[in-house]
Amino acid sequence: MTARAGPGQLSAEGTVGVLQPGMPVHISLSAHRIQPITNDIMTANLDANMRIAGTMRKRMDVTGTIHVNHAAVTIPNGLPPSVATLDVVRAGQAPQPAAAAVPKLVIGLGITLDAPAAIFVQGRGLDAQLGGQLKVSGTSDAPQVSGGFSMIRGTFSLAGTNLNFTSGRVSFNGEGLKGEIDPTLDFVAQSSVTYNGPKTVTLHVTGFADSPKISLSSTPSLPQDDLLALLLFGKPASKLTAIQLAETGAALASLSGIGPGGGGGGGSKWNPLTWIKKAFGLNSLSVGSASPPSGAAAGGGTQMSGASITAGKYVSKRVYVAATQSTNGTSQIQVDIDLSQYLKLLTRLGNGSATAQGTTPENDPGSSIGIAWEMPY
Q1: How much is the pLDDT for 304?
Q2: Strand 307-314 relative to strand 198-208: parallel, antiparallel, unpaired?
């Protein structure tokens, strides 16, 4: 058998004893630059040499090596909530009889995943390159994963400020919070600031991948508010402007896990952004990175582009108006009009233009007009 998977080729040869006792299987599989995974979260290009041997009635063993040529992982801004499976009981209907027990096929694992320097992770302020090796053993019902991936390079963007990671590792050494295999994180980023003497700020990312913990510390020790203010603006919180204070509060909220309502796990319970939204009657208020200034070269590395603050309000049920002001001098007015239930008119009027790689209609600080069609599914 031969087949194509993306730009690569997949081939397999062997035998399946359909009419023999137990239905024995002996298959060798090889792949060159196949791309079996392509979606919004992950794209992977692989080479593989695998062997499947055993019987379909009792046990099969899957062994071999997988080499990752390139893998890109995009961390989404949010994931959908998990949905519980409910057993529906209808009144007056007899319950379905239980199915007869069928002997379960056991699949043994002996797989080595090799990715020396080819995993790129981006999203939520993280931009990192990792490499390493995993070994998967045990069975499909109880897999055992060892090894991990170490960071080769990486940065973390916090409210428009870049921190360089000094070390980082993703390890597979046990079960996560939900009783499933979940990688553990251990990343350290540092930055030096100067205010009344030199100080070192350290960002720690630890915990499980499905529940990471992000914290800040400093040498010498400083309060969290002053620490963030020094990191972002080079001065303590007491000397910040209102916009700078809002930006510091947004960064603190993101590190503490505080939602828009001010609740969350740990950290400060006061969110300046929430207070400002309520005081001015706004529907939305956000702080983030500004688009690159006009004339910035494409692919210009990790040069900072400043920060921006956006405030918006529905002036009627169908009209949304927002204004964006950035620290690099660009400003923009946004007006969105609901023409129908699914059709929107989008207008932007700004004094900036972005030529850097990665510019999209959503973050372009210039002027534009267009329509958007949104269909629920």
Answers
A1: 43
A2: unpaired
Give the pair of three-digit tokens for residue 181: 């295999």
C-alpha 168: how far from chain center:
16
Instruction: Give dist(CA 368, CA 350) in Å, integer.
Output: 9
Give the count of alpha carbons within 13 A of 112, CB side only: 8
What residues contact residue 256 under an 8 Å CB cut-off, 6+ apart? Answer: 264, 265, 266, 267, 268
Q: Please calculate the CA angle 360-364-367 and round it to the nearest 5 degrees.
A: 125
Question: Which stretches does DSSP call E strand in the chain?
Answer: 2-5, 8-16, 24-38, 42-55, 59-74, 106-123, 126-139, 143-158, 161-171, 184-194, 198-208, 211-219, 284-289, 307-314, 319-326, 331-338, 343-350, 368-373
Question: Cα-flanking dihedrals φ and ψ of residue 341, to 5°?
Answer: -60, -35
Q: How many CB atoms lie within 10 A of CB 10?
A: 19
Domain boundaries, the chain: 281-294+305-377
CB distance 115 to 71 below 8 Å: yes
Q: List pLDDT tens digits, range 226-242.
A: 777 777 777 777 777 66
> How far is Cα 377 from Cα 368, in angstroms, rounded to an integer?
28
Q: What is the DSSP string of 37-68?
A: EESSSEEEEEEEEEEEEEESSSEEEEEEEEEE
pLDDT at 276: 65
Cα separation of 172 and 145, whole Å?
6
Q: Give the residue from 272, 274, 254 showing the smallest Cα distance to 264.
A: 254
Q: What's the rounded Cα separation, in Å, for the pair 26 and 13?
A: 8
Angle between helix 272-280 and 242-256 (nearest 10): 130
